[in-house]
Amino acid sequence: MAESTAATSTPEIKTTQFTGEQMVEFGGQAPSEALLVTLQGLREADGGKKAMEQYRLGNKEGQKLSPKDLGKLKEITTDENKVIAETLGKKLESVSIYCEVAARIQAEGGQASRILTELKVDRSWAEIKNQALDILADTKVVRSIYKGMDKNQRIRIIEEKIASDPRFREAFAQGAKEALARIDSLPKVNEPEGKKLKEDERDELKDKTDRHFESLKTITSLEDRELRELFDQDLGKEAVLEQLLQQSLEKKGVQGEDIPRFKAVLEQEVKIKTTEAEVVQIEDQINSLQDELAAAKSIKAKKGKGEENRQEEIRDLDKRIKAEESKKTRKQTELDRLKNELASLPDDLKVKLNTYRDLYKRIYGKEPSITEEEPKATAAVPNHVQKLIEQLPQLKSKIKDIKALESADEDYQKQLSQRELSEADIIKQLETVFNDSIVDLFDKRFDEMTELDKKRLVKEQDEGLKKFDEWLEKRYVEFDTNKRREIHHRVTTGEDMKLVAWYGNDGVKRIAAKHLGYNTDPSTWNNEQKTNIDKIFDKKGPDIKKKLFTSYFKERTFIDKSFRLRNPFNKEFLFDGGVGDLTLTDAEWGRLGEHFGSEIEAGLSSSREAQNVLNGLKEKGINPNWNLKWLLYILIALGVIGGIAFIATR
Amino acid sequence: MDQNLTLEEKKKIYDELFDVFFIQLKTKKLSVEEGRKIAGYILDNFEPINKKKEFFDFLENLCKQWSLFNNYFLSKKGVTTQEQDKKKIEEITAKINQFIN
Fold this sequence. Notes:
The structure holds two protein chains of two kinds.
Chain A: H1 20-26, H2 33-57, H3 67-71, H4 79-108, H5 112-118, H6 125-137, H7 140-145, H8 151-162, H9 166-184, H10 195-220, H11 224-231, H12 237-251, H13 258-298, H14 305-343, H15 347-364, H16 381-408, H17 411-456, H18 463-475, E1 477-480, E2 485-489, H19 490-503, H20 505-516, H21 527-557, E3 572-576, H22 586-605, H23 608-619, H24 626-638
Parallel strand pairs in A: 2-3
Antiparallel strand pairs in A: 1-2
Chain B: H1 7-26, H2 32-46, H3 52-65, H4 70-100
Helix pairs in contact in B: 1-2
């Protein structure tokens, strides 16, 4: 118990309160709305102690995506983005639920199906798990880090080492929440009022008129454009029908001047029919007279006046029959002449006449006639024409209305396009979450490993070695605690990796020489310099290698990060040098293997998972290259796969 | 002189301490990690405390690390002084009454 009491001392004020601006500057993670609501709820229900306990345990709400979070994707409404957002929503949901259920199974035991029921998830565990693992195993960073492993092996690593890690879940959920929160601030796009209804009506009318035009096209052989131009003239029904016939005839090579010739033929046909009827009528008359004559002749001869009358009747009938027969002969001659004339018409005129008859019948529903002044149409065509005459003005009116509405809100299309772009950007950000959350997890593990190393490190009494520790600490990945800023010295890391690759432990000595300010060429070192270098090498050689190798891994991993998301662990990143500065050639990788092969093999032999990977590759006839072995070795060091690395470091 | 803290008093103190740093969280003057450290410190160090004097020692150490509790500390200290003064006045009044009677 402290001697001082509350009544006698005033506490020293140490500034730990930051303004909002400072929080951003320091990269501190401000509490999310979800966290605040949860804490408030706990405080009200169970009091401050319980709220603090839950808060200390971790922000469980912050480690998963709620239906409310995912529901925001429904606000993605533009055509192009909507479908992508739905698919992405399923993926995000799968990963979030999979991680939550996997973590609960690990912590509490029990069946996934029971937890899913409790979470009110109506999808099957197999579907969720397969989709989630598939997504994570195919991220750029996992494919790049676990190069050489097949998908099943990558999936197992994710199941055992990544998905169950609360830091991954938090990075994933926070990243997704951050991107989803942007949806709330998307600019609203106000469609002109009533436009949708008018557009629906327009579409319906357009469908109808299109169908009418389609039918007319089939019947008349006119093209769509020609038909529409005809209807654009605002003619009456009869005029449209006449035009349809005329244009269709022209299309088939029948000209306007042919029409009077058709009329003449038609008149002649009428005459033939009339004459034929007259001939038949005369024949009927002759037959009737002959019947009367036969009857008169069949009566027995009478005496006196009666016989005279009978003979007179017979003579009269003979006379009348002859007159009728003469009449019939004249009519028949006339009929033959007419028919001959018709038969001798030119062939092209006959073809054209048939075309005329055919089109006329298709358009008007009956044979052409010269008797009717205004033909009364009976076919389907007039119905289509009538509908088009009624509907086309309505359609034009709707289009006009819609244009008026669009011009009433000139910004509509502009706003829509802006919204589409913003939505697409949010989707892109969400798509990076899967990958970047894993990068962030590796980053966190690296930091924790560094922290552990610091604690394990025996405080150097020797001033020279103490300075060396401080120098090495900042050489490759430098972290400024106050500013929470991390600097990746890619140029230095790349240079030192090359030194160690080419010269092995002599390369490590050359790094020590750099610290001491000596030339890196050993031939220039005098005895005193050699002693100083050896002292560092003997005491710190393994530390240099470990720091260099793990830093190199970390810096390489960050090449796969998109940096679209705020770092969930409150850090800002700076890079000294480009990606190319970290590139090692195949020859350099080979040399690294030659120098450190046995050391790495010893480390790998401690890892069951590493051995499984290596054996799996060998079974497939692949000789694991040095790069892969080195990578596995680093992954063991970071705890990403099981085993003990750097066992001989101190 | 030491007085024991009752369960109700401890509960009230937990609530008050939570409220102090929750306001800071809400106004984004405190980061999530820093808030978590504070919650951890309070839970680890206040839970074993049963006496008021120990509570003030704890509070003083808390203020040394996080100044956001200064006002709370001062207000608690003020309330306690007032309570002590009131008690002394009551004792003196009782003695005077005893003497008079």
